[in-house]
Amino acid sequence: MTNLPSQTDKKLGLLIDLDICVGCHGCVTSCKEWNSTDDMLPLSDFDSYGDSPDGVFLNRVHGYEVNDGMTAQTVHFPRSCLHCEQPECVSVCPTGASYKRQEDGIVLVNPETCIGCKLCSWACPYGAREYDHNQGIMKKCTLCVDRIYNEELAEEDRKPACVLACPTSARLFGDFSDPHSEVSILSQERGGVALMESLDYKPVNRYLPPRKKQLSDRGETTNEHYSSGSKIRSSDAVLDNFFSWLDKKLS
Amino acid sequence: MNPAYSVILFTVLSGVGYGLLAVLGLLCLFSLNAASVLMNISVLLISLILITAGLISSTSHLGRPERAWRALSQWRTSWLSREGVLAVLTYVPALLLALIWGIEFVPENSVLWAELWAELWKDEIQTYISVIGGVAGLFAISTVFCTGQIYASLRTIPAWHYSLTTPIYCVLSITSGLLLWIFLSALFGYDVNQIIMVITIGMLEASLILKWVYWRYVDSAEFGVTKADAIGFETQTQVQNLEPANQTQNYLMREMGYHIARKHALKLRRYAALAGFIMPALLLLLVFVNPSYALVFSFAAIISYLFGLLIERWLFFAEAKHIVTLYY
């Protein structure tokens, strides 16, 4: 049903640390791999070996240059479904194929009842939904619902594929409704951000902003470098002087 | 937004069909329908053919058209579902009306049951036609209202999320219905009702003003959020694309990233206004001046209007920008 649950028991989601994401696209490929194998309908690709390969991805990493007037830095920005508390992608769905789970807040698409009208992708400001032309249905991040509750897997593997793949641990998975969860605590400490909050879709996922690069800190370090550098240079100079004196005496 | 031909064709064709049915329904409701049963039933069938053609075209937009019936289930939350439900409901009074007129059309005394029918219903028949016609008209225009609301409710597309989006859909639909009704009246050899012509010219000019206001709004419509907000930085932070997420195109870029150059858009707006709203009004004035050529002029008016409407609808999609483009 596209009626939204008034409240969900849990708010499962991802915490993504923009400070340490290196933009390796490991999460992108591991997501694609997990969601294309076993019982899952594959995320279709088109023209894979041609001039303009194209395909469905549930997670994409963008690279931006961010300039706050003081410093310019490169930010790698992974983008996937934020599992909003007010997901308009769900309420616009005419068939009830899109739904938000009451038990954990995950937003899913039922591949058996989706008619592929694409309206949900129009309703999402975050570009979380991608249409699969091969199967004629909409695809989106499932938060690896088939991993996180999967008792066939070892307990440490019951996490979304993207989280397990991240080599820098920039992606954390957990329950944002529990104030004592790792994701809640880190989000609280580091000022986790909800994207485009003013639109009021109430995203669950949070992004940790890059740590502030303190100009004074950098100044001190740099000065140290310079001073130690000049020390070396000054000792070099003493030696140089000695050798030039020796050279003169000997010649 | 990508101007998908299946959706443009649907909104134009069924828009005209529902408009014609709404006009017919209103005429029935107020018992102003002086036309013969033959014309009434023809108008009704033409409107149903247009509606059905539009609906079939719209299902070609679906990835799984065979599941289209499922779209009738979520009318509590989804405008698309409401549109579907009303589209189906509209057939009920429309087909009832067709049945009544169909039976009336059978020459009296030629068939026993037609005679019986006439005996039983003769007195009340006009009341039934008014009521059923009124309901058909109401459902028809409500369907168009839902179509408008599908777009107007999307907060991700400021060009559509606007108070005039739905009224414009309704006004354009009724205007096209009036123009088609005028042409059909002339075709069936009636003197075109002058009051209806005046109303139609008024509606055409109202459309022109509404669209002018709408286009001015589109020119100034803003997302209300910046690229920096989109990636979680402070609003004023400067953000530039450095590395794209993918080297080639993807679904989001094709579907939401469609962009039309402003120069072309301005030219097309002029064509839409000229063909859609100005030419038909002038042609109707010519009908006033020279009623003996009513058929030719009214035919030219509806053709010109449809041409303008196709451009208007294409622009409605092509000019609309989606918030997701901030990421690209």
Describe, in short, the structure shown:
With 251 residues, chain A is α+β, with helices and mostly antiparallel strands.
Model description:
The complex is a heterodimer of chains A (251) and B (328). Chain A is built from seven helices and eleven strands. By secondary structure, chain A is an alpha+beta fold. Chain A has a three-stranded mixed β-sheet. In chain A, strands 2-3 form a two-stranded antiparallel ribbon. Chain A is elongated, with a radius of gyration of 26 Å. Chain A starts with 11 loop residues before the first strand and ends with a helix. Chain B is 69% helix and 2% strand. Chain B folds into two domains: 1-153; 191-328. At the A-B interface, strand 3, strand 4, strand 5, helix 3 and strand 8 of A face helix 3, helix 8, strand 1 and helix 9 of B.
What are its keywords?
heterodimer; A: 251 residues; Alpha-Beta Plaits; 3-stranded mixed β-sheet; 11 strands; B: 328 residues; mainly alpha; 11 helices
**Helix and strand sequence of chain A:** EHEEEEHEEHEEHHEHEH
The number of domains of chain A is 2
| Estimated structural class of chain A | alpha+beta
Are there runs of chain A of 5+ residues with pLDDT below 50, and where?
Answer: 219-230
Secondary-structure-based class of chain B equals mainly alpha
Largest sheet of chain A: 3 strands, mixed
Count of folded domains of chain B: 2
